[in-house]
């Protein structure tokens, strides 16, 4: 016996078993319960005050031993290691920590949370988090009025002031999401196990008694509250426990009081609430005034026992519901917490106002979009950010130099609309521009960087789209400019995603990832399939980089996303085009920012935006951007290796001829027989040997497939282009035509030939090395601080029109800095200029050639390095 236990084999087996048990325990999601209401949910049960009925007294006179667990042996109040609480109310404001006494309205009081939490903690092996939001003196008729009870279209303006209808509903829901996004802060030891919203408890009503109209509407308002909370949380069967407002016990004969309690009791009888709403009758918990610390009847005479019993019975009613309601399957959700390693571990998803509405936005529209993001299922499919684009701001800053909302479009201000967005479980995005004006000539952030980032942080912004109109006047390179914003954001202490919107000025090359999480690769997208293809080609093809790179995939990854601009899905001519667009963005791991008017969305558009397997390819944890493996005669094939051992393949026919497209498995990292699944059809197509053919694909038709087997060794991606192929690394001469440019705009330069592929000739002399250009053209080369001088001989090619003029410029890094190292000014055919300039210490130079349909040659273009 003894021997077998010490046997190393068994010991390690036991150890393994033990470790796996810990793992299981550690992986349990956090059970989250929301407790909400007014002052009696805040809790006024005295701990010490008064002679009788305070918590001390209750524990001391506890004949049945019901409440002994509240005190430790040493007489101190117990504290739980497995139940945590976050409370927000107007007295002590935010209180958080391990569940114990003192989480009532004051530090010397308790509320229903105490026994509710104790019951839950004893029942579940998971960690439990209570989120308690409660404010005294608030009614369901006004303060908590749920959106659907406010009128068919919800609130007609954003609830921005505490007195506004619905203000506390919005605060309650936005608090829930705020806490969920910071679980690691509120649940000690939280390691991303996820959470389950398990139930909602409501204890409120006093202020709806007095007012006759409010009293009459209470039943309907409460019904709406239950529906709206469930809808907003995306949990239609969420268990709901209502504790009646039972103060004064069975003696209460006030007809308004009775009708309010009857309205609460009635909830349990609604057929749709039968299995999932419980009402706790609390009148038995009333204790006489003489046996209580206070005469305040509307606060249960501040009797601690009453509050303990309310909480305990709510918890038991909740457990009964969780037991009996078979339809409730709490989903384990994983919200990326602010403190996680990455703000955008996978490409950000959301909706942005620009493509749908341009300048024509206002708070009503935005609220409506937020509502639809929830009701359409978009939020739960991953569309997380709601980004308000240009033209939200007033034409003038305030006296303190701060940005203010356009008073007509957003009368409630930008904090209130943010609260509303948060209350829907969405994140809040906003637009600004690093020029002195935005692209719509409104105040930009130049020279107000910190002020504006501070404003955004104070409004609860989670995502900043930072545009670049007029930034050319700033005199700062993009990298310098963005460093200012990055620092300003860090200074706010609030993590905010920075989306670099610069028309594709090479952020992948000059280090955009040091400042932001995503960057544009293209000019603006328009609602035509041509524009969609062009934008896609800047990220997935040679639209913005040398073709050898096979697109920008090697610069993508967590917090580094290539952004070919926002979606036009729903705005294109046909469903076929919309689908091709969505598949391209999916395979390119592009940020998915829907840009259609959600209120006009057709079923087809919705199906595309919600296509779960297509989204899953985009959001794959391996974070590998797809790359082109075939591009010929309008047929393209892309490959995106996934985390599950399979690989995603897009085969697209951009041409007008019907065609068959075949993918050879050995071109996508696989060999032999492979399984193939069509992700749009959600259908396995079978096993195929060495290749797969999609037959008869018409114009814009495509298939998006997953090929291979789950659990197989991950498919190897392509090898990245090594640095020495696009960087000056050697001493002596490096011809620019011997390294790959990292950014090109307009016509790509031709290497060692004029634009037509013929030898470069300048004034009769042939140049073996050099670059041939056609206007307009610019190309960025990486010198890496290694080079000393740049030299070239420039002139117009003789194929240029006779009277043509052209201009050659060499700039530092990219165009936003406006730092010109050399400018030929306009030259004519026959002119020849020798360039020999200092480029010491520069990381990048940009060669630009402009003019009207003219050809130019950079003869002998090279740098020298020591
Ligand atoms: C630029 C951006 C667009 C949009 C508009 C707003 O053009 O690229 O995405 O934000 O500005 O003015």
Structural overview:
It is a single chain. The protein is an alpha/beta fold and 866 residues long. A hairpin with a 4-residue loop joins strand 22 and strand 23. Helix 20 packs parallel to helix 21 (603-609). The chain is elongated, with a radius of gyration of 32 Å. The N and C termini lie far apart (76 Å). Bound molecules: alpha-D-galactopyranose.
Number of helices: 22
- Share of β-strand residues: 15-25%
| Percent helix | 25-40%
Distance between the termini: 76 Å
Q: Please count the beta strands (DSSP E, at least 2 residues each).
A: 39
The radius of gyration computed from the alpha-carbon positions, rounded to a whole number of angstroms, is 32 Å
Instruction: Determine the structural class based on helices, strands and strand pairing.
Output: alpha/beta
Give the strand line-up of the largest sheet.
Answer: 16-15-14-13-12-11-10-17
Poorly predicted parts:
1-6, 8-25
Shape descriptor reads: elongated
Q: Which key features would you list for this structure?
A:
single chain; 866 residues; alpha/beta; 22 helices; 26% helix; disordered N terminus; binds alpha-D-galactopyranose
Question: How are the SSEs ordered, and which strands pair?
Answer:
Layout: H1 2-6, H2 8-27, E1 30-37, H3 39-42, E2 45-46, H4 55-60, E3 83-88, E4 95-98, E5 109-110, H5 113-123, E6 128-134, H6 167-180, H7 183-186, E7 195-203, H8 206-210, H9 212-233, E8 240-243, H10 255-266, E9 277-280, H11 304-324, E10 349-352, H12 354-357, H13 363-375, H14 378-381, E11 385-388, H15 414-423, E12 427-433, H16 449-458, E13 463-467, H17 478-492, E14 497-500, H18 507-510, E15 518-520, H19 529-540, E16 561-563, H20 575-587, E17 592-594, H21 603-609, H22 612-618, E18 627-632, E19 635-641, E20 647-653, E21 659-664, E22 673-678, E23 683-689, E24 691-697, E25 702-707, E26 732-735, E27 743-746, E28 750-751, E29 760-762, E30 765-767, E31 770-774, E32 777-782, E33 789-796, E34 805-812, E35 820-823, E36 827-828, E37 833-838, E38 844-851, E39 855-865
Parallel strand pairs: 1-6, 1-7, 3-6, 7-8, 8-9, 10-11, 10-17, 11-12, 12-13, 13-14, 14-15, 15-16
Antiparallel strand pairs: 2-5, 3-4, 18-19, 19-20, 20-25, 21-24, 22-23, 22-25, 26-39, 27-32, 28-31, 29-30, 31-39, 32-38, 33-37, 33-39, 34-35, 34-36, 34-38
Helix pairs in contact: 5-11, 6-15, 9-10, 16-17, 19-20, 20-21, 20-22
The chain binds alpha-D-galactopyranose.
């Amino acid at each position: 016996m003894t021997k077998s236990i010490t046997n190393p084999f068994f010991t390690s087996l036991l150890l393994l078993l033990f470790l796996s048990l810990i793992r299981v325990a550690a992986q349990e999601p956090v059970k989250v319960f929301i407790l909400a209401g007014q002052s009696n949910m805040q809790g006024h049960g005295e701990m010490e005050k008064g002679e009788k009925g305070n918590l001390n007294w209750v524990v001391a006179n506890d004949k049945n031993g019901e409440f002994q667990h509240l005190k430790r042996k040493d007489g101190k109040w117990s504290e739980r290691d497995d139940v945590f609480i976050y409370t927000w109310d107007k007295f002590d404001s935010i209180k958080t920590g391990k569940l114990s006494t003192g989480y009532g309205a004051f530090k010397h009081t308790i509320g229903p949370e105490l026994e509710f939490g104790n019951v839950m903690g004893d029942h579940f092996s998971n960690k439990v988090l209570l989120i308690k939001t409660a404010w005294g003196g608030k009614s369901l008729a006004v303060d908590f009025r749920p959106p659907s009870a406010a009128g068919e279209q919800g609130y007609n303006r954003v609830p921005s002031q505490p007195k506004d209808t619905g203000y506390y509903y919005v605060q309650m829901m936005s608090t829930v999401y705020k806490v969920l996004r910071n679980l690691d802060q509120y649940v000690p030891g939280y390691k991303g196990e996820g959470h389950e919203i398990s139930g909602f408890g409501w204890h409120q009503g006093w202020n709806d008694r007095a007012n006759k109209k409010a009293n009459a509407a209470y039943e309907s308002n409460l019904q709406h509250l239950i529906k709206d909370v469930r809808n907003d949380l995306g949990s239609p069967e969420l268990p709901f426990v209502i504790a009646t407002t039972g103060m004064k016990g069975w003696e209460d004969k006030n007809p308004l009081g009775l009708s309010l309690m009857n309205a609460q009791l009635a909830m349990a009888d609604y057929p749709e609430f039968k299995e999932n709403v419980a009402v706790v009758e609390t009148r038995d918990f009333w204790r006489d005034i003489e046996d209580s610390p206070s005469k305040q009847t509307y606060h249960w005479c501040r009797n601690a026992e009453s509050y303990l019993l309310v909480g305990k019975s709510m918890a038991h009613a909740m457990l009964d519901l969780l037991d009996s309601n078979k339809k409730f399957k709490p989903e384990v959700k994983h919200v990326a917490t602010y403190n996680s390693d990455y703000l955008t571990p996978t490409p950000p998803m959301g909706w942005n106002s620009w493509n749908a509405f341009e300048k024509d936005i206002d708070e009503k529209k935005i609220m409506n979009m937020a509502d639809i993001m929830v009701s359409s299922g978009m939020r739960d499919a991953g569309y997380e950010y709601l980004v308000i684009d240009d033209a939200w701001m007033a034409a003038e800053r305030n006296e303190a130099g701060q940005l203010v909302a356009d008073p007509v479009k957003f009368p409630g201000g930008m904090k209130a609309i943010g609260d509303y967005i948060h209350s829907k479980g969405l994140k809040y995005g906003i637009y600004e521009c690093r020029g002195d004006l935005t692209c719509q000539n409104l105040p930009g952030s130049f020279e107000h960087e910190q002020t504006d980032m501070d404003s955004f942080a104070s409004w609860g912004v989670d995502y900043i789209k930072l545009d670049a109109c007029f930034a050319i006047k700033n005199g700062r390179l993009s990298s310098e400019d963005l460093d200012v914003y990055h620092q300003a954001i860090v200074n706010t202490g609030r993590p905010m995603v920075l989306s670099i919107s610069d028309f594709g000025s090479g952020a992948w090359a000059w280090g955009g990832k040091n400042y932001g999480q995503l960057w544009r690769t293209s000019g603006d997208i328009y609602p035509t399939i041509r524009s969609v293809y062009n934008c896609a080609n800047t990220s997935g093809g040679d639209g913005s980089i040398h073709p050898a790179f096979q697109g920008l995939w090697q610069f993508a990854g967590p917090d580094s996303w290539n952004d070919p601009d926002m979606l036009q899905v729903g705005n294109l001519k046909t469903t076929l085009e919309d689908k091709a667009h969505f598949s391209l963005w999916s395979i390119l791991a592009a940020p998915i920012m829907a840009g259609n008017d959600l209120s006009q969305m057709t079923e087809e558009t919705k199906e595309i935006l919600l296509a779960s397997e297509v989204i899953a390819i985009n959001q794959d944890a391996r974070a590998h951007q797809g790359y082109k493996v075939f591009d010929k005669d309008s047929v393209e094939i892309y490959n995106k290796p996934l985390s599950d051992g399979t690989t995603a393949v897009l085969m697209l026919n951009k041409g007008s001829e019907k065609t068959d497209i075949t993918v050879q498995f050995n071109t996508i990292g696989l060999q032999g027989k492979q399984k193939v699944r069509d992700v749009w059809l959600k259908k396995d197509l079978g096993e195929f040997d060495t290749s797969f053919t999609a037959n008869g694909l018409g114009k814009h038709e495509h298939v998006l497939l997953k090929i291979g087997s789950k659990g197989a060794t991950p498919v190897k991606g392509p090898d990245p282009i090594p640095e020495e192929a696009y960087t000056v690394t050697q001493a002596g001469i490096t011809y620019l035509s011997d390294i790959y440019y990292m950014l090109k705009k307009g016509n790509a330069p031709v290497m060692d030939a004029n634009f037509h592929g013929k030898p470069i000739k300048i004034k009769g002399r042939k140049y073996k090395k050099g670059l041939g250009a056609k206007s307009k053209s610019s190309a960025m080369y990486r010198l890496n601080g290694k080079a000393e001088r740049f030299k070239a001989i420039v002139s117009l090619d003789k194929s240029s029109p006779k009277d043509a003029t052209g201009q050659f410029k060499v700039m530092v890094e990219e165009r936003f800095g406006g730092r010109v190292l050399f400018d030929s000014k306009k030259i004519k055919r026959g002119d020849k200029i020798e360039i020999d300039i200092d480029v010491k210490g520069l990381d990048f130079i940009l060669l630009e050639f402009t003019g009207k349909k003219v050809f130019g040659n950079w003869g002998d273009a090279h740098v020298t390095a020591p």
